[in-house]
Amino acid sequence: MVTHLHVGFKVEDYERWKEGYDASIEQRKAAGEISFQVFRNVDDPNTVTVLSVQESAEQIQAWMDSPELKERQKAAGIIKRGQMLIMEEMDRGTH
Length: 95
What we know:
By secondary structure, this protein is of the alpha+beta class. It has one domain (3-88): 2-Layer Sandwich (Alpha-Beta Plaits), CATH 3.30.70.100. The protein has helices spanning 14-23, 25-30, 57-64, 67-75, and strands at residues 3-11, 33-40, 47-54, 78-88. A four-stranded antiparallel beta sheet has the order 2-3-1-4. Strand 2 (33-40) and strand 3 (47-54) form a beta hairpin. The longest helix is centred in the N-terminal third of the chain and has 10 residues, at 14-23.
């Protein structure tokens, strides 16, 4: 079963955060990331949301709780991490 991660951040500067996010690709892949999407709030470009597809809930939870990630987030200028949702996909459709 595919797992999805939805997490929001308030960052000091989007470009600084994105540089750090991009630099973490190998660690994210090792933690089971299959794909990702990054969104910015149109009214506040320093409010960021990441949606990603993960191999398992356990892998992503371990990565999100890791001291390495906490250090990376601090270096990338994350002010606040919002609600984190780890979700299982139950249905999909197109129109």
